[in-house]
Amino acid sequence: MAKVKVPKKVYKYMPNLLHLLDAYVDKDKGIVNAIVEINSHRLNKYELITETGHLKLDRVGYSSLAYPFTYGAIPRTLDLDGDPLDIIIANVTEPIAEGTLVEARVIGIMKFVDGGEVDDKIIAVLSDDKRVDHILTYTDLGEYWQKETKYYWEHYKDLKKPGTCEVKGFFDKTEAVHVIDEAVSRYQNDFENSIDEDDEKDCDCDCCSCHD
Fold first, then answer.
1. Tell me, what CATH number does 116's domain have?
2. What is the pLDDT of residues 127-164, one digit of tens each?
3. 15 preceded by cis ω (within 30°)?
4. Rg of the chain's alpha carbons, rounded to an integer?
5. Total domains present in the chain
6. Which of 95, 123, 125, 202 has the least C-beta neighbours within 10 A?
C-alpha cells in the first residue's frame, strides 16, 4: 500500500483528501496532488463534495460534447468561484478510476470565466508517465489541442446557458503556479481558518489536544 504523508491535525470533516493533502508534492518541479473527478470521453459532470470528499454526479451532460481530457481538483486550494482549483490532465493514455489521487506536473493554465465567475483551469500531465516527459509547456500539446479545449469550454453549456462561458487565454507555468499559490492562500485564509474557529466554538472541554 502506498504511504501518503498527511498532517496530524484532525479536521472537522475527515477523512477527506481535499483537506488532508497539500496542493504541492514538489513545488520546485511544479508537481501537485490532484484527485480525478472525470475521465476523457465522458459526458456527465462528477464533482467532489468539498465538505465530505465524496464524488457526486453534479449534472448530466447537456449536449453530446464529451470531456476531451481527464479532469480533477487540487487539494487545499480555493478558487474565486468557491470551489477547489480545477486541473486538466492532458494526454492520459488510459482511464483513471474517478476519485484516484495522482501526481501531476503543471505545464500551464487556461484562464476561464463561467457565468461571470472566475473558474481557471490548471493544465498538467501525469508526473510519472514517461510518454509525456517531453511535454514541458502547454504549447507542446499542439495548436489543435488548444483549439479543441477552447471550443469545449466555450460551448459545453450552449444548450442550457448559451454564451455564458469565455476562455480568456492560455498562459505558461509561471502564471499557473502564481494562481495555485493564490488559491492555497485563499484556502488557508477563507476556508481553513473558518473551520478552526468553528471547532473552538464547538468544543467545551479543557483538554490540551483541543486547545493546542
1. 3.90.80.10
2. 999 999 999 999 999 999 999 999 999 999 999 889 99
3. yes
4. 18
5. 1
6. 202
| Beta strand 24-26 pairing with 70-73 | unpaired
Predicted TM-score (pTM) above 0.85? yes
Handedness of CA 67, 68, 69, 75 (dihedral sign): negative
Range of the domain at 51: 17-192
Residue 156 lies in a domain: yes
Print the SS3 string covering the chain.
CCCCCCCCCCCCCCCCHHHHCCCEEECCCCEEEEEEEECCCCCCEEEECCCCCCEEEEECCCCCCCCCCEEEECCCCCCCCCCCCEEEECCCCCCCCCCCEEEEEEEEEEEEEECCEECCEEEEEECCCHHHCCCCCHHHHCHHHHHHHHHHHHHCCCCCCCCCEEEEEEECHHHHHHHHHHHHHHHHHHHHHHHHHHHHHHCCCCCHHHCC
Q: How confident is the model at residue 62 (pLDDT cuts 50, 70, 90)?
A: confident
In sequence order, what are the residues at sequence separation of 6 or more whose Cβ sits closer than 8 angstroms to the Cβ of residue 193? Answer: none
Neighbours of 193 (CB within 10 A): 11
| Residue 88 included in any domain | yes
Task: Answer whether residue 76 is part of any domain.
Answer: yes
- 3 located within any domain: no
